[in-house]
């Protein structure tokens, strides 16, 4: 201890150089540190998606889901398997414990899938490596005069592919509009007259849509590659495919069938405000990436798409951007940290009565914050509202206050005046160095049980513990090195000897209270135990919640429509609900979504409707209107539609809770037997 303090006092240039390097490392760590608005509490999960178009849920379960469940059972470190089967879709979620990482789990699942016997048309795929907080950007395509089918083609062939090129993007989910397809409607009477079977038509269509290679041909000094171009380009090309021949006359597709342009049957649709049909996309961030960097790259690519890549008048328009929430979170956190630092500085000045002394302690606050950024970067833990909000500056500066107060007192004692200031500072620091070290170690050790927490609990509280411990370690080092050095240069000539008026007033009040407490020890103990008992009795009356409530700046409404409802009727009901919600002046826009996308990544049935309600900043709401009151008003307005029961949440919160239980709801009941 003495050697460390002595080096800090005797080698000020070394300390300054190390301090500069530390600040540079802290700033670099902060700039590279992923910052999220919400902690990612999801487990290691692998989702297997299997499409079986046109088949009822019973057939999908028998032929796809059950074989997959058998084949995927018993995987190493797997703790739970959840399957969901619906029309044309099998959706299986495998949850692993903390001993497995994402890539190990996905590799194990892929190996097992190779041995599962499934129908020929079923090809199981793994869902993108993303999490519940990975939906960072939502957008729609706008193009005046263009049909939903044309916009969907642009989304699938241009926009989606461009966004998938961005580092950190796991996938882009396309939703809404119509996927273009060519439909061949055969005339059975003509087929019978020409003695042509349906299998011959299938074979001809498959054979007629392919290119062929013919090797090469040498002619003189040149070599020519030979290709047979047979890819279909239009409905006329389909009609010209040869099915059979009769007496040397070819029988073509258009002789026995009609060719039309249609759309793939869908089980999902998206609408916004007064538009019942829009084409949208959701950008999914890869797990573990920095959302700020990925969002910046997405916005840059969107600007390029709108500027030169997309045909006019098509544009990509965002209606949900996570960067707004991240910026709001950072602003809130750093404003609170600044207010806390200023409050600590003011309190120190009031009690020490010396602005320089208060400034020395205040310097420890930003340095401890930089130590936190370095610690989180080393551990690979992203910062979020919960972890940064755990910073307690009162505890962090405790060691610095102890050292500074002792140095401050020794420098002003008369019997210390003959000694040199350097010797006084050294002895004063060493005198309280060991108690300071032990007090910090006690606080650090108190956080050790938090590091042992597993799964969701560990992901919530471990970042908080790492934040506090990193800050305490940094504060301890600076309290024993930088504080005595600054005290030597800034406080050595101080002539302040008496307590200031604040300290004298506190002593005047505290001394008689302490005297009475020491005289009536039993009464004090009885009162303390009574207060403790009373506080424990209030614990059952406190509300409990798994995740803290975070104002995301938007509302998320879930509504279950009647089972068996058609896609057309769903569209009409969604338009009606959007119109009701849009009546409120606080609402900017309402985006509705029902059913699932064609790739099956969001396994919702057509009667499961979700609404993203973009609201204005709360400062622009009606006077004295709270968020809970607005939700109550919306709920009352929606009750005019018979047969629905809306539930209100927020986008990220809804996704996180659903990913934990695989069920969309706050309360989940599992029935066994």
Q: Count structural domains.
A: 4
Determine the number of helices (DSSP H or I, runs of at least 4 residues).
Answer: 23
Shape label: elongated
CATH topology annotation of the largest domain: Multidrug efflux transporter AcrB transmembrane fold
Low-confidence stretches: none
Mean pLDDT: 86
* Main sheet overview: 5 strands, antiparallel
Classify the helix fraction into a percent range: 40-55%
Written description of the protein model:
Helix content is 51%, strand content 19%. Helix 5 packs across helix 10 (291-309), helix 11 runs antiparallel to helix 12 (355-379) and helix 12 runs antiparallel to helix 18. It is elongated and about 125 Å long. The chain has 4 domains: 2-33 and 326-538, Multidrug efflux transporter AcrB transmembrane fold; 43-130, Alpha-Beta Plaits (2-Layer Sandwich); 180-263, Multidrug efflux transporter AcrB TolC docking domain, DN and DC subdomains (2-Layer Sandwich), CATH 3.30.2090; 554-661, 2-Layer Sandwich (Alpha-Beta Plaits). Strands 13-17-18-16-19 form a 5-stranded antiparallel beta sheet. Strands 2-3-1-4 form a 4-stranded antiparallel beta sheet. It is an alpha+beta fold and 673 residues long.
